[in-house]
Structures are given as C-alpha cells and as structure tokens.
Predict the structure.
Amino acid sequence: MSHAMSAEQSIPQSSSPDHPAAHPVQVEGLTKKFGSFAAVDGLDLEVSAGSVHGFLGPNGAGKSTTMRVLLGLYKPSAGRVRVLGKDPATHPAEATRNVSAVPGDVSLWPNLTGRQALDVLAGLRGRYDRTREAGLIERFGLDPSKKIRTYSTGNRQKVMLVAAFAARTDLLLLDEPTAGLDPLMEREFGHCVRQAVDDGRTILLSSHILSEVEELCSSVTIIRDGRLVESGRLAAMRHLAASGIEATVPVERADDIAARLAAYGMAADHDGGAADGVIRVAGSVDRQNVPEVLGTLAASGARDITSVPASLEDLFMRHYEVVS
Amino acid sequence: MMGTPAAVQTRPRHRQDVPAATGTGTAGQYRRLVALVLRRHWTQLLAWLIPLLALVAVTAPSYAELYPDLAQRTVLVESLRANTATAVLYGPLPDPGTLGQLLVWETGTYVLIVGAVMALLLAVTLVRRPEDAGTLAVVRSTGTAPWLPVAASFTVLIGQCLALGAGTALILWGQAQVNQELTTAGAFTFGAVVAAVSGAFALLATVMCQLAPDGPVARSWSLLILGIAFLARAVPNAGATLDDAGAAPVTWLHWVSPLGWVQVVAPYTRDRAWPFWVFGAVLLLLLVLSLWLASKREYQAGIIARRRGHDRGLRVSSGFGLARRRGMGSAIGWTVAVVALGALFGGMSSGLLDLLTGSDVTAQLVRRMMGDASVTSMYFQMVTLIAGIFVAVYAVGSVMRVRADESAGLLEAELVTGRRRWEPLVAAWVAAVVGSAVMLLLAGLVTAGITAQELGGQADAGRIIGYFLLQWPAAVCLAGATALLIGLRPQLAWIGWALVAVTASMTWFGSLLEPPGWLMDLMVFNHVPDLAGDDPVYWPLAVLAGIGVAAVLLAVPSMQRRDIRR
C-alpha cells in the first residue's frame, strides 16, 4: 500500500503545472449525476495553495455535491478530481487525511458532549493540537461540557469549526460554514480564516453570501445549475463588474455626450423620457476609465452625477438572471 | 430504521395522498394530523400487524391438522406440562388442552410479548420522536392547539393496539365457525386481552416518554418494564399447578403484570369478562397520568431532568474505538437481559428434578424415551434459543446503527477525518460479534452456576455453557448479512430485521407449518447440535460463521464503491 501511495504521489510532481502543492484542489470536467439528473455538469475548479477560494452559487447550484465529491463521499460520474494530489474517489482516506471539512448541516453524535465530539474527531484523525483547540473554544464562546443533543444549530457548527481549524491540516473545505452563526461569530470566523491563511493553509469556502466571499476570498468560482459560470481572481472580476454611473444631461446634448462616453467603453442608456429639457443617462464603465468619464460629464454640463462601485452582488444577480 | 427522515422523502407523492380534510376547524386539523401520522408510519404499522395476525391465523388449523381430536393430544399436552422451560415461558397449560387453550398458551404468549414490544416502540416513535426531531415544532407552529398532535399520535397508537386485538378476535371468530373446538367467547376474550395488554404497554411507554429526557431513554425504560413484567409472570408460573377448574392459577403478580392478564381472564377456559373493567380503569389511569405529566414538562425535556454535561474527554483513536464506545450502552442492556434470562431458567431448573428423579408415569416415560442427559439438554436448548434470538437482535441492531448514522450524517462526520470507507461498518460488525460472544459466555457461566446449585450432579456445566456459545454463529451470520445489505444498498437494510424475524419465528413455530427440510436448514438458529447426542455435528455452525465473515468481507468493496448519502 505504501509503495502504491508513494508512486502515485511522485507522478504529479514530475509535471509542474499539476503539482499538488500548487493546487490543493483540482477539478476538471466533473459531472455528478443522480439518475438522469446532473447535479454537477462539467465543472472545472482549481484552488491555488495558500488562497481563500470562494465557491459561489444559489441554493441547489451543486456546491454541496461538489464538496461531497471532494471529500470522497460521492463518486464522480465523470471528470478528474484531485485533492492534495489524491483521487478522493479511489483513495478517500488518503485524500481527506489532511483536509478539515465543515458541512453545511452539521451532524454530531447526540449523546456525546462537545468536548467528547472534539476528542473523537481529533482522535480519528490521529493528530491533536490541544492549545489551538482551547484557543478556538474560547474564541467561539463554546461550552464543550454540554451534550450535542442540547446544542443549537449554531453551537453544533461551532464544534465543527473548532475541530476544523484546530486540526493540523493543509486544506479546509467549508460548505456554507456560517449559516447558523450570529454576526459576532461570523467575525470570529473571518479572523480564523485569515489566521489559517497566514499559517499557509488553503481554504475552499462555499457560500451564497456575497459579502462574506468579498471580504474573505482572493478568488472565486461561480456556479449555477451545476455548471461553471465564471471563475477567477476576485479583483479581476470586480474590475469587470466596473462602476455604475448616472447623470442628468441636457436633452439637446445627450446624443453627443453618449457618443463621447462610448469612446471610454460606456454604453449610456436614456433612463425614462426627457423632462424640463434634461434627461437621465446611466451605464457602467471599467473602473480605470471612471475619471475620464466623470470629467467628460462635468465638462458637458451634466448634473447630479453619481458613481457607485458595482458590487459583486450585481454581477452575481446578472449571472443568475441573464443566463437562462 | 423505518423512522428516519430519509424514509419520508423516498418517493414523491401526489398531494391527494394526504386526504384533504374538509374544514379548517379543530376536527379538520385533527383528521389531517391523523392522516399525516398514518402517511408517515403506515409501513411500520402494517409490518407489525400483518405477521402477528398471520401467526394467529395459522396456529389453530395446524394444531388441528396434527392432532385432530382431543384424545390424540393427551400425550402432547402431558409432555408440554412436564417441560419446565415451557412452564416458565408460557405458564401452566389449562385442562383439557383444547385448540383454543393451546393457541392462547403458546402463540398467545408470543403475540402478547411481541405485541407489547410493538406497542412500546411505536409509542416512543409516535409520541416522543417528533418532538426530539423537531417535526412537532413545525406542526405546532402552523396554528394547531398543542394537544392536537398529541391526540393524533395517541389515536394512531391506541388504534394500532385495537386493530391487533380486533384482528385477532375476528380471525379466531371466523375459525370458530368452522372448528367446533374453538368458541366465539374465547375468540373475543382473547382478542380483547391482546388489545388491553398491548394498550397497557403503549400507555406505559407514553408515561416513560413524559418522564425520560429523550426518546431513546424512554425506550430503554419501557423495555426494562417489559422485562420486569415478564419476570412477574414467569416466576409464579414456574412451579404452578392447575386449580380445581383446570385453569392456570391467578396470583396478585398476574394482576400486576399486564402479561399476566391473559391468565386472569383465561380465554377458552373461563372467558371472564369482569376483569376488563379493571384493565380498562388501569388503561384510563395511565392515559390520564401520561397527559397530566405531558402538561407538567418542558418541551423537549422530561420530568426527570437530563444529566448535566461534564468535562470528561473521550480517548478514541479509530472507528473501532468509537464503535465500542457507542455500542457499550446497548451491549450492557442486552447483556443484562440475556444473563437475567439464563438466571431465570437456571433458577427454575429444579422443576427438571421431578422428571429426572420422579416416580410418576410421565417422568418414567420421558426418561425412558430421552435418557437423563436429554431432559436437561432439551431444556437448555430451548432456553439458549431464546438467548440466541436476543443476541442476534442485539448484533443486527448494532450493525444497523451504521445505516442510521449514514442518514443522520454521522457517518460522513466520521469518514471525512481521513478514515477508510469500510471502517465504521466493519467496526460495528466486530463490536457486535465480540459483544455477542461476551454476553453469551457471561449468560452461560451464570446459568451453569445457578443450575449447578439447583440440580447438583445432574447439571452438566460444560454442556450448558456450550449451548449458549453455540448460538454465536447465528449472530455472526445475521450481523454479517446486515453489513452486506448496508454495503450494497442501504435502502434495503431493513431486510436484516426481516431475516431475524423470519428465522426466529420459523425456528420457534416452524413445526406448526411443517416446512420442507431444506427450508428449515436455511433458518440460522436451527443448527445447534444435540450435545447429549453421541456425535454432535458442528460443521453447519462453522458454515454460518463463515457466511458472516464472508459477507463482511464482501461489504468492504461495496462500501468503497457506493456514494455515502444522507
């Protein structure tokens, strides 16, 4: 067994782009079907080492299915999946040995206490970091002497987060981990994520909450109906999303202004009809062109100019509403 | 197993399936809630009802076929009376041993005990589990009065007990129309007592549901009460002789233990009606007590508070350690049950002395037919068969926990810590197999010790322990088969329980049906050799154990192949 494992590890190391150390999670063309229904359909996903990678999508998009494939719980119908260089479908134990996972819906042994559940999770993994665990218990304000049965959803989630962050693992797969947490605990969670990255760990964070992803992640993969919508660095995608600009301009100059704005890549729409000789125009533009656009508008006698950085929310909404 | 949330969503159904009750008033809500409970549990309700009624239906005809008239039955009746084991289990067989009396005595005891198990398990499932699982909160938040879901659960629960009693009565009434030896009065008295006894255990369990902090604890307490009720009937029955009227004697313990009520009313012998007023009053009292306690307790808590948490840790380093730790509670419970069973029969074994040393005609006849060794052998073969069935239920239940873990999401919590796929399943099987061996050995030692005190030199300790240990391969086999089912198709895991139920019933009652030999060979409990014989055959037991091991080995790759689902 050990021979086979070492052989398997050595193969990806020879081809440098596939180096497991560079990309702890590699998914190519993943399809997972349940009967005739494809929960995930041809998904590509690559997570760089040391990054926090957001995995965005609405409910039922296939995020949890993908996570379960990564954890070796589901067998993929097609595609190539590597977690820390191992195939979770054939070697689930090896693939998850250095992975901490927090499911969206945490289940733990109801008749054990929180303390005992943590002991079991750490004991099964075989590695323990008592001091880190104690610090996390304090950070999340968890009372580990109570039985799991009496815990609320949020408290069960805290147990799992403590176990995940305390474990000495390289990769964290977090499936909507803040669903049951209050805002204070969400902040603590953010702190833990940043701490984990500082420690050199990699995180794949699935979520349908944009603000969370915007705040924590450096890159993001967006899926919908099991298919990849968009993937890349968050900064680049924010750049794509651009700024939304609105202004009120004199009617007689509207066409002229629109033509000049078009030169900066802004397609300006008339919003409603003209009233009192003025008309409202709106559009979006790359962020780097915002100063020029604003300058043009100001020089043209435009009034009530607003420029708002389009949030990822807009991008997100567009992806789910336009693509259908 | 059948009550898992997964069971609800197996098949998408049309809305008409929950009959649209008319009106939105209390009556309408009540009808909807009853329909909801039935929709959720109908398979479980029928799975208990149909086999029990089928057993009632086949008993009298098969007795009648084997021994058409009373005179032919004299020898059978005499030998059954002489058997101490049957006396402890069933009580004294009333005179003269009509079909109805035989039926109530043997099949009736089984129906009462299994009916009691059914009633108390259902009570916990219907009355307490919705609260623990949170579905009751959903129902309560739709604007129904708090008592309405309770009323719906009690309706279905008591309805099931009444259905068992009514079904029994109707079947036996129908048979009374054909067979002169059966009576209409006996049919209805027995049906009524079946309903009363199962109802009593159902209501006792609902009282436990109010007292206990959660469902599993309530279930353990209820099963303990059933065990005590059985003891309270078995002890006075062990040495009892028939009264002048030819009926089994009635002591105060028979009134106290619902399982003894059948002897109080004596169906097909006395057909007493008046005790039902007392039983009815007891049932009403239990119902009122249960509802009163329900009003006194907090939601999702019991009258008796949950033990407060503690800071003790838990050292577990593998799936095997976790399986051992989690299985300990049920293993201790089952060990107590099996050891108590052995101790009871060991303690009652002095009854065998009459046969071994007695001078009456029966004793001499039995001794001549079987030899001294076989008299004790037969006794302990019967006792250990019951122990073997208990142990098999424990073993299958332990393996079945993996299935429950999977639908509850606990299996994935265990697996994603970097454990091998097969480990939890194999660990559960190993825990079951080791636990079975330990409890059989303990029961054997205790029984042998007690029997040695009762019988002195007549007790062969080695053979008694041997009979207990020889039950082990059946448990190994059934636990292995269950593991394989879970590995292959977890949705079919219930077949594991069906295997236990069918093999146990066929071994116990198979002779009634006169099945072909090859069919009986399939019954795993049917292969224990006669240790008093000249040349006991052990290889079938080795085959059984081998099948169990092979099944687990086959479960390993199938567990690795399939998806782990919730």
The domain at 242-322 of chain A is CATH 3.30.70.120 (Alpha-Beta Plaits).
